[in-house]
Amino acid sequence: MSSSMLFNTTTIFYMISMVVFFVYLATKNKGIGLLGSLTAYVGWFIHTTAIILRWKESYDMGVGHAPLTNLYESVVFFAWTIVLIYGIIELKYKYRVIGAFVMPFAVFGMAWAQTRLQSDIEPLVPALQSNWLLYHVITCFLGYAAFAVACGISIMYLIKTRGESGNSDAKAGGVIGLFPPAKVLDDLNYKAIMVGFPLLTLGIVTGAAWANYAWGTYWSWDPKETWSLIVWLIYAAFLHARITRGWVGKRAAWLSIIGFCATIFCYLGVNLLLSGLHSYGAGGNTIFHMLIEKIRHLFS
Questions:
Q1: DSSP states of 40-105 as a string?
Q2: For residue 125, what are the CA distances in angstroms to 69, 135, 219, 279?
């Protein structure tokens, strides 16, 4: 069995888990909620096996590198980290309903990778031939995953507070009756960002060390570096406002969502729309770039 088959199987399990979680929202049946969690966990273990197998396949081909070097592999790894962070939070806090708002991120990533991105295993370009690759990519994507979970929780918080303000019976029934209390959601949002922020910081630091190794400079204001700094500043502002000014509730939830939108642009938007030293990360997007060039030609 190849890693591609296992990645496809993973996508199916994640899709099933997402649908089951939606059914859980509609029925409030605890057994269905448990099934959603178990399906996600099984998918994650298959996902882990697929990543390990792809790593082995690269060595069998004589390429021999961690499966983290192009857009396909990074999207797949991002989905893996999202489910990992979600699973840790669910096991710790026992709120399965969060899966309905987090699993769609993993499903979208896996479905996009399997249907739109080039999955070939290729030799590393010189800039990627460094042990800093593992440190930088792993820390960054664990941070991104924590922000994804925080975004899903923030969406839940906004739905919860809006429902409760518009319906006095919302606490006792309806879909939002399954949600944790608003204060708990606000606290989970903060904790997820508290996990993600130092990981992102470490990712930026290791990225700077890697840049110095590859290009002879720690910082060059490359678009990816600039947007990484913007994301870091947004979450630094979140933590500063939370700790020193007591920002909680809707303001914190919206800032968390804005931060994740900036994170996605830093990760995907920069790779797909802007050129720079990180352009090698956009492998497998030939069709997308052709479309962009045609649009530019039409308006030029």
A1: HHHHHHHHHHHHHHHHHHHHHTT----S-SSHHHHHHHHHHHHHHHHHHHHHHH--GGGHHHHHHH
A2: 9, 17, 20, 11
Tokens 């490359």 found at: 222
Residues 6+ apart with CB under 8 A from 252: 154, 186, 189, 190, 238, 241, 242
Nearest-angstrom CA–CA distance, 26 and 132: 46
pLDDT tens, 119-172? 999 888 777 778 888 999 999 999 999 999 999 999 999 999 988 776 655 554
The pLDDT of residue 247 is above 80 = yes
Q: Which residues, 6+ apart, have CB-to-CB distance to 78 below 8 Å? A: 109, 141, 144, 145, 267
Neighbour count for residue 115 (Cβ, 10 Å): 9
Check: CB of residue 153 under 8 Å from CB of residue 189.
yes
